[in-house]
Amino acid sequence: MKAGDRDVLRDFFRKWQEVIEEFHITPEHIYNWDEKGVMIGLTGREWVLAAQDRKEAYAIQDGNCESVTVIECASQANISAFPHILPPYIISAGDTYTAANFRYLVETEYGDANILKGAVFRKSKNGYTDNKIGFDYIKWFDLQTREFADNGRIHRLALVDGHSSHLTLEIIEYCMQPQVNIHIVCLPAHSTHILQPMDVGIFGPLSRAYKKEVSAWCRDCTNGRMSFASFLLCYHRARETAITNRNVQKAFEATGLLPLNPRVVLDSRKVRQDAKEEYEAKLAIEQETFHPMKPLDPFNLPPTPRVNKTIEDIKTTGKFYTAPAFGSS
């Protein structure tokens, strides 16, 4: 965040509080969702234990570069009856995996029907979200949480980033229906690293856990590329490790959203450091472009022959030389 954006943060927290108080929204009905890109079979760089005399050391990776997008959603609810961690919404490029296809893949290869239970599978042209998927997701989210919101009579709040698929006209019209009552709050630009619970406390542990699972799979299964079913198993295990009640609760607390505590963000090292860097950069630019006029000291002028003669005349005769008045000949 830039130095001037502290006011933006304060304004966001004020509006956040106003929406919650006006519609009497309780924590179990406040959700955050976001997309996460996942590369099947790739873990990135790793630390590898090797002999000291080896110049390079390598870790086995599957090499499957297929990319999928997973939408994760959770609320801070600590009531077991509420669906505070929703099933993943998985978007892949190419063929569509229906629930039946998914169950067949997993049960055939691993014999476990509980892997990513309730997950939804969609496809898009490139494996990313688009406006159509964004609209389908809000309707699915409504169905997943409606029963626990008294069939839409209790207001719900969804915190999202500024991606275009999160706030289309269709989504706004759908959420404004009296029987829906979903309020969408969009985060300020460039603030997800400090205000979005998924980014602050969930996706980091999830990435590390997934990397660990894929590395273990690559060590045990060196033949062939990682199948989609194997990817789902690795992601399921990573998800069970990372997306826990405790992590979700800590993520909301770390953003200052629930319980409401703006000072957590405003006084954080990230915001203070960004503000300091912005101020120093602005000051450096001003110093480079602004050169104030300094009064000339007649006894410390540059040592040219004419200047030296003028100084000597002043010292000896007391004569002061001035420029002719404007317009005089």
Automatic annotation (TrEMBL):
Q: Which InterPro entries match?
A: CenT-Element_Derived, DDE_SF_endonuclease_dom
Single Gene Ontology MF annotation:
DNA binding
Q: Where is the DDE-1 domain?
A: 68-252
Q: Which domain of life is it from?
A: Eukaryota
Query: Do you know which Pfam families this protein is assigned to?
Result: DDE_1
Q: Which GO terms describe its cellular component?
A: nucleus
Q: What is this protein called?
A: DDE-domain-containing protein
Q: Write down the species.
A: Ascobolus immersus RN42
